[in-house]
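thought: fold this chain, then report.
action: predict
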Amino acid sequence: MKKENRKPENINIWKDGIIGVLIGDALGCPVQFRSRKEIAARPVTTMIGHGTYDMPVGTWTDDGSMTMATFASILDNNGINAADVMDRFVLWLTKGEYTPFGEAFDNGRGTTEAIFRYLKDRDIETCGGREVYDNGNGSLMRIMPVCLYCYEQQKAGRMTDEEAISAIHQISGLTHNHMRAKAACGLYYFMVRAILRGKQAGDIADGKSLTELLQKGIDEGFAFYKQERQSEIALSHYGRLRDLHDFRNQPSSAIRSSGYVVDTIEAAVWCLTGTDSFRDALLTAVNLGDDTDTVGAVCGGLAGLFYGYENIPEEWLAVLRKRDWIESLCAKELG
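observation:
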C-alpha cells in the first residue's frame, strides 16, 4: 500500500488514532483466544465476522467501547476528568453504552473488578488494581484518547512531560494501578508523540521510518522513567524494546501475544517495526493469536497515526460498526 502524505494542517489525529484502535479491535475480535497454531491453519486476511463471540463483521469489543467512553468524556469535559471517565465505564459495563449493539461483552477481570470497587466506594484513587497480577492490558488498550489530548496540550505549551504522564497514569490507574501497567501507557504516549511530532515536522514525508520514530519515543520514555526508582523498576520489564532494530529481528516464536501488558505492547511494536503498511501491520498482529483484539487495537492506534486514516483499507472501514458516530466525534474540536 502506498502511503499518502497530508500537510500537517490537514491531519486529524483523533480520526487517525481512534479509528485505528477500533479497526484493530474489530479485526481481532472474531479470532480472540485462538492459538497461533489454530489461526495459522486458517489465517485472517481481511475483516470477518462471528467467530469467538458470534458477532457481525466489524464489531469492536471492550477495547473500543472503553476507548470511546474515554474519548467522549474528554470531548464533553474539554479535558480529562477521571471521575467522569470512570462513571462512563460504569455505564458501559452496566448499561451497554459506548458499545456496537447496546451490550457489553468481552469484559476483562481486572477492569470488571475495578468498576465494582468503584461502585462500592466511589473512590477513583483506590478502585484500580495495584497488585502484580493486575498487570493486564486493560488500560493500555483504551489509553489512546488521553495520549492524543496530552499531545495537543503539550504542542500548545500548556502541559509538561510530568503533567502529561501524571494524567496518563491517573486514567490507567482507574482500572490498572500497578506501576508496570501505567509505564506501558506512558511508553505508548511517548511513541504516539514521536509519531505525531515527526509528522508535524515533515519527517515522515522525508522518508523517516516508523521504526525510527518509535525508537525516538522509546528513548524519550526510558529517559523519563529512569528519573525515579519505582519507575525504573517497572521499566526493567520493557528491556526488549530498548533497541527496536534488534527487537524487530526477533522470530515470531519469541513474541507473546497474551493479555499481559508487557506482551501486548511488545507484540504491537514488533508488528509495526516488521511491516510497511497499515494492512500488513494489523494482519500480522491478529494472526499472532491469543489476545488478538487488544494486540490489534494497540497496534492499530499507532499504525493509524503513522499511515493515516486514508491508508486504512476501505473495505474494513465500510463494515466498522457505528462508523458514522465514531467519525462525527472525531470531527469535533476541543475548546
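thought: worth noting. The first helix runs from residue 13 to 28.
final: C-alpha cells above.
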